[in-house]
Amino acid sequence: MSEDSKELAHAGSFGMEVHFHDNHCKRSSFVKVLTGMIFDIANQLEAKGGMIGHVKLIAQTDAGFVKMSVVDIRLGVETVDELKGEAGEKGSIKLMAVVLGLEDGTVEETVGEALTHLGGCMDYHLAGHDCDHDH
Predict the structure, then answer these.
(1) In a domain, 133, yes or no
(2) CATH number of the domain that 42 lies in?
(3) Does the predicted TM-score (pTM) go above 0.85?
(4) How would DSSP label each residue in the chain?
(5) DSSP-derived pairing of the beta strands 91-100 and 51-61
(6) What is the pLDDT of residues 31-48, one digit of tens each?
(7) Residue 135 lies in a domain
(8) pLDDT-based confidence at residue 11 (cuts at 50, 70, 90)
(9) Is 131 among the domain residues?
(10) What letter does residue 50 receive in the DSSP assignment?
(11) In a domain? residue 134
């Protein structure tokens, strides 16, 4: 979406990548945390007056991947779980939100605030951060 089309549609968008390590959540808890996070993002964006275009994430771990998408909070979270066994100890989560009626900054702030969901399972940081972890 070009900046001109975003402006004409009154759309805001934001994407980010998070790296995680030392994940101590079991598979079911890991998927539950991701589900809660993506639903919270969508719910908060609507509460701020936005209309969801989509909120998506893909979590890639050393045990496979999970993809999630919300296009309407009334429909819930659509999930594709391709983890092999447990959730994996390290990996990355890519998030993207496109919302009509909100500015980019509001979308970015809302996505960033929802990252607190991850803290109960793992250590994480934004991609691009210098660290000693292998990922």
Answers:
(1) no
(2) 3.30.300.330
(3) yes
(4) --HHHHHHHTEEEEEEEEEEE-----HHHHHHHHHHHHHHHHHHHHHTT-EEEEEEEEEEETTEEEEEEES-GGG--EEEEEE-SS--S-EEEEEEEEEETS-HHHHHHHHHHHGGGGGGT-EEEETT---SS--
(5) antiparallel
(6) 999 999 999 999 999 999
(7) no
(8) confident
(9) no
(10) -
(11) no
Strands 51-61 and 11-21: unpaired
Domain limits at 111? 3-126
Partners of 57 in the β-ladder: 68, 95
Whole-angstrom Cα distance, residue 118 to residue 3?
A: 31
How far apart are alpha carbons 19 and 17 in whole angstroms?
A: 7
> How many domains, the chain?
1
Task: Compare 50 and 8 and report the one with higher pLDDT.
Answer: 50
Q: What are 105-128's pLDDT values in tens digits?
A: 999 999 999 999 999 899 999 987
Structure-block tokens of residue 111: 């996505």
